[in-house]
Amino acid sequence: MLRPKLSVSKFARDRALHYLARRQQYRFPEIIRNELTEVVLGYTGRCDETAARAGIEWMRERERRQGRTPAF
Questions:
Q1: What pLDDT shows up at residue 4?
Q2: Which long-range contacts (CB under 8 A, 24 or more apart) does 1-9 make?
Q3: Could you point out which of 2, 37, 54, 72 has its C-alpha 20 to 30 Å from the C-alpha of 60?
Q4: Which pLDDT tens digits describe the chain residue by residue (72 residues)?
């Protein structure tokens, strides 16, 4: 069965950019940084869908831990 192509929303892309742009504030392991980069790439075109999905899930979990409902 084919999985539907990953569609990254603008909001998810903007959140990923927020984390990536603040390198001093958010010190992530390289794998998290790579996953967030794939989220940004997924908004504009081809990306590593597995990594992008992991990046989106990481952002969702972070939102939940901070008591917010993820908007993406």
A1: 65
A2: 5/49, 6/42, 6/47, 6/49, 6/52, 6/53, 7/42, 8/39, 8/40, 8/42, 8/43, 8/47, 8/52, 8/56, 9/43, 9/72
A3: 2
A4: 555 678 899 999 999 999 999 999 999 999 999 999 999 999 988 999 999 999 999 999 999 999 999 888
Selection from 21, 12, 18 nearest residue 44 by Cα: 12
**30 CB neighbour count, 10 Å cutoff:** 7
Alpha-carbon gap, residue 54 to 36, rounded angstroms: 8
Count of other CB atoms within 10 angstroms of residue 59: 21
**Could you tell me if 6 and 49 are in contact, meaning their C-beta atoms sit under 8 angstroms apart?**
yes
